[in-house]
Design a protein that fits this description.
A 15-stranded parallel sheet has the order 1-4-6-7-10-11-12-13-14-15-16-17-18-21-22. The chain has a three-stranded mixed sheet with strand order 2-3-5. A two-stranded antiparallel sheet has the order 8-9. By secondary structure, it is an alpha/beta fold. 32% of the residues lie in helices and 16% in strands. It has a domain of 45 residues. It is globular and about 80 Å long. The longest helix has 32 residues. This is F-box domain-containing protein.
């Protein structure tokens, strides 16, 4: 072997290149070349482990059994406890792991299920210390296997910096798939026993605990989560369930914390925390409330500064509460000395605002029951947010009355030229007939060049005025069957073409001609890949909902085809002259 290959830096660069190429087979071959290359190659080969099966299969063949369950699925089990030599072999590979990702179902069509016998066998090591002493990142999603949490008790070490774990519902009977709730203290499950062990990760910066949906009153993980959080001093990003007042006070004093997602406890906790100047460096806040938007809104007064990203998740968005919150986010621009705050400061305060309702109740008579004049969301309600010129994401999702016109949509687009995601009840739709037409949509596409996702309800049946006859021989692709030979039409957007938009959330937008709509969208938004409309949960019983949804899906499928035709036509025109027809 050449002497340059004895230099550790050279070997590391070679291994790093093979790692970047995702060439596991080459790294394994390199490790078998000679002793000098073995350790560096194995370090890179095992550095990031996606799936738990490779670790099990490094044990002797007589220990593990892989059974084919059919349909591409397999089950991996361990038949006996590990002996001392086998523990040493396991640790030879486990000590090299820096990132471990485990999903019970990585691929629904082809995955290896890790049987509980594996975690039982590995959950009682005979050698002291964590199984993964160099582990930096753990991503774990296996809520069906309780034994996995006993194994995780001995897996984490002091160097772990990122923990993302999905937790099971302890109220769910795993064998019968039924739920039973009790007012008594929750059963101490393996998952509940595991949570305190995370505290040994002294360098932990990111903690994401994925729970089933609970209210703040019935979350069985609340106490354990609070006790855990009180022991963590270096958190940068925390996502969890309900936290009590003590935990919030502790987090509010952490200068490292920049992102927080949690469920507000009941009992007006925010009022008791006011005046403490908490969360000095918080940039992103995701607040879930089991009661109302007012409760979530009150928490903003606790923050030392306004975060750039705000998400509110509540059972129901009430119009007057939403309007109150928007006004609180954009107050009258007067500082403590009484002088006016600069527009530049306000413009960069918020970049992401999300208002989401997780309980969607569709009242078929909603437009008739609630007066639109009093309860509808209008341009004037959103106008206070216009000062945030750097706004990149605005999402308001609920079944609520909306009164917006084409000109209103144009004003929204002009106010937020940097918007990336804009959705105003585009997921579930609007109760009343939309006033917005293609003209309003074209304004957004023209004024928001960075837009990637648009959620809006508009009347796609109204396409009048989008096409004007011309004297040239342009293609009549958009004009449909009514085109006359020799007569061309202008492009529907008069040249508007937004290539950034890939997703449309169109709620209950009415449509009557899928092919015509696809032809229009392929010209003004040729890169649209997904159109979601007429949500089955919200509109399952609405007359014609399935037909409308099918037409929008047909339009989605035709957009790329029409866009390809246009591209080819224009390419031929550029090469061979203006006499060729083009759209």
């Amino acid at each position: 072997m050449h002497r340059c290959l004895l230099i550790l830096e050279v070997i590391s660069e070679i291994c790093l290149y093979l790692s970047d190429q995702d060439s596991h087979r080459s790294l394994a071959s390199l490790a078998q070349t000679c002793h000098a290359l073995q350790d560096p190659a194995l370090d890179h080969l095992w550095r990031t482990l996606v799936g738990f099966a490779p670790l099990v299969k490094c044990l002797p063949n007589d220990m593990w059994i892989e059974v084919d369950k059919g349909s591409g699925t397999k089950s991996l089990t361990i038949s006996r406890p590990l002996r001392s030599a086998e523990w040493t072999r396991f640790r030879t590979y486990a000590r090299r792991v820096h990132g471990l990702v485990h999903h019970d179902k990585i691929d629904p069509d082809s995955y290896t299920h890790i049987h509980s016998s594996v975690f039982i066998a590995l959950g009682s090591p005979v050698i002291p210390g964590p199984l993964f002493p160099e582990l930096r990142c753990l991503v774990w999603n296996d809520i069906e296997n309780e034994e996995a949490f006993r194994f995780l008790n001995v897996a984490l070490g002091e160097k772990t910096q990122v923990v993302q774990i999905a937790l099971p519902d302890p109220n769910k009977n795993s064998t019968s798939s039924t739920y039973s709730y009790s007012t008594k203290r929750p059963t101490i499950t393996p998952a509940l026993r595991f949570l305190p062990s995370i505290a040994r990760c002294a360098q932990l910066e990111v903690l994401e605990l994925g729970y089933p949906r609970f209210t703040s009153q019935d979350n069985p993980y609340s106490d354990a989560t609070t006790e855990l959080v009180l022991q963590l001093q270096s958190l940068d990003d925390l996502s969890c369930g309900s936290l009590n007042e003590d935990a919030l006070v502790h987090l509010g004093r952490l200068p490292s914390l920049t992102s927080l997602s949690f469920t507000l406890p009941a009992g007006n906790v925010a009022e008791r925390l006011m005046g403490q100047n908490m969360f000095p460096n918080l940039d992103s806040v995701d607040i879930q409330s089991g009661s109302s938007l007012d409760e979530a809104c009150a928490f903003l007064a606790v923050l030392a500064k306004r975060p750039k990203s705000l998400t509110f998740t509540v059972p129901k968005l009430i119009h007057h509460m939403l309007r109150k919150l928007i006004n609180q986010l954009a107050p009258g621009d007067v500082d403590e000395s009484g002088s006016s705050k600069s527009d530049e400061i306000q413009a960069n305060t918020h970049t992401e605002l999300t208002f989401d309702a997780y309980t969607i109740v569709i009242d078929r008579n909603f437009p008739a029951v609630i007066p639109l004049e009093e309860e509808a969301l209008r341009l004037s309600d959103l106008a206070p947010l216009f000062k945030f010129r750097s706004l990149e994401h605005l999402e308001i999702e609920d079944w609520m009355a909306i009164v917006l016109s084409d000109s209103d949509l144009g004003e929204l687009a002009a106010a937020w030229p940097n918007i990336i995601t804009l959705s105003i009840c585009g997921k579930y739709g609007w109760p009343a007939e939309p006033q917005v037409t293609f003209a309003g949509v074209l304004s957004v596409l023209r004024l928001c060049p960075k837009l990637e996702a648009l959620g809006i309800v508009f009347d796609a049946r109204k396409t009048e005025g989008l096409f004007r006859a011309t004297n040239n021989d342009d293609s009549a692709l958009e004009s449909g069957s009514g085109a006359h030979q020799g007569q061309g039409y202008t492009r529907p957007g008069a040249g508007v073409c937004n290539t950034s938009v890939e997703t449309l959330l169109l709620g209950n937008s009415p449509i009557d001609d899928a092919k015509r709509i696809a032809a229009i969208l392929s010209d003004v938004a040729p890169n649209v890949k997904s159109i979601n409309s007429w949500d089955e949960t919200a509109h399952g019983n609405v007359h014609d909902a399935s037909r409308m949804r099918a037409m929008w899906k047909t339009a989605e499928e035709w957009i790329s085809t029409f866009a390809s035709i246009r591209k080819e036509e224009r390419a031929w025109k550029a090469l061979e002259g203006p006499q060729l027809p083009t759209s």
